[in-house]
Specification:
two-stranded antiparallel sheet, two-stranded antiparallel ribbon, about 160 residues, single chain
Length: about 160
């Protein structure tokens, strides 16, 4: 959905992206930069993947994933899918910069083709975009200070560390 600009139409009408509250313009710029970077990536073969890695969409038994629900498909080049998954995985809050880097590294180690440095940069950029999108959703619902483990809180405190 990043191809629709930094803020595509929200997936739920409770989120209002039509105006940015004063003082949060940096989030618009952060998302726009990630969108522009992703637009510059070359055409790579797309893969089909699950695009909503939220803990409520996964069933785990005995430490193994046994089911995945709410199949929102994403069809993008592999490094973009890796980054969207790394940045969008929501367990107890949003992933930290270290979580994102570890996810990309783990994927690169188990993927038969691996990921070269350019592909890792694309993955990091896709992670930044999805974190910004989730942070924008957080901002639409914000009352008070952001939870430091939310996407908004993570970017507020650590945006430069997300590759």
């Amino acid at each position: 959905r990043y191809r629709g600009g930094p803020w595509p139409e929200p997936h739920d009408p409770i989120f209002d992206f039509s105006r940015t509250p004063e003082g949060w313009e940096w989030l618009d710029a952060f998302a726009a930069a990630a969108t522009a970077e992703l637009a510059q990536t070359g055409a790579a073969p797309p893969v089909v993947a699950h695009g909503d890695w939220y803990v409520g969409n996964v069933r785990v038994e005995a430490g193994r994933v046994v089911a995945v629900f709410d199949w929102d498909f994403v069809v993008e080049p592999e490094p973009v899918v890796v980054g969207l998954s790394a940045g969008g995985l929501l367990l107890e809050g949003a992933p930290s910069p270290a979580d994102v880097a570890a996810f990309v590294e783990d994927y690169a180690q188990v993927s038969p083709a691996g990921l070269d440095e350019a592909q890792r940069r694309v993955a990091a950029t896709a992670a930044r975009w999805v974190l910004a999108f989730n942070a924008r959703c957080d901002l639409a619902m914000l009352s008070g200070e952001p939870d430091p483990t939310s996407a908004l809180g993570r970017l507020l405190d650590h945006r430069a560390a997300y590759g």
